[in-house]
Predict the structure.
Amino acid sequence: MYRGFQLQANAFTDLTYRQAGEHIFSQLENTVLPVLNKYVLASGAIDGTKMQEDWFPSLKRNVFISHSHANRELAIALAGWLYNSFGLTAFIDSCIWRHADDLQREIDDKYCKNTNNDNYNYTRRNYATSHVHMMLNTALSKMIDRCECLFFLKTPESTVSSIINDVEKTSSPWIYSELSMSRLIRKKIPKRLDKTELVKSYSAGGMINEQLRIEYQIELDHLTTLSATDLSLWHLKGNQLWRDKDEHVLDTLYDIKPLKKK
């Protein structure tokens, strides 16, 4: 990855591009059948590496869209806007990968039920959950690393501002994990750019468990803020450049929102 941006709550609200986004992802959706037997090794263990490759394959995309599950339709619309406006391909985990809950259910039903009833064994299910979440978290980190940019949808659903000490928080463990990883992941300058400073970036989206609410303090100062005005200016300048193939359209965005000098 190279740059990270946080879209203000009202920076992008156009759901008219949702159909375009859904059409794009319908052609990319992973159709792996949930057959666990195909991953069982001769030793009886499950091949976790192969399972992760099938369920959460690493792809080449321009933009990683980080968002709350509650903003999934908005994220899909943004992906449609990016592709229709600039030909940029976006990554949204739930649109391309099979949902982690589906894999979790398959493993739980086969390996985690008690023998005397249909209830799940607490210890075995916790062990299985740790594996599924580790696969997903590792795959997400790889995708952030492969994408050139990350766009984080900063909304009331993805972040919570603390009134007491004016810090940003999230109740999503996925947002917390990916923001933390973003400060450690390698920063890569695109080969087409010769002289550009590095910047710290990134974040993610997830679901909120309403019965158990845990909040994590997050840092967003490494993500460049994008307003509705910034997106409009990028669309005005970048759309024609993309059609003329004069330069990479992301470079236009970098010019509009340059890195701050340290």
Notes: The chain has a mean pLDDT of 82.
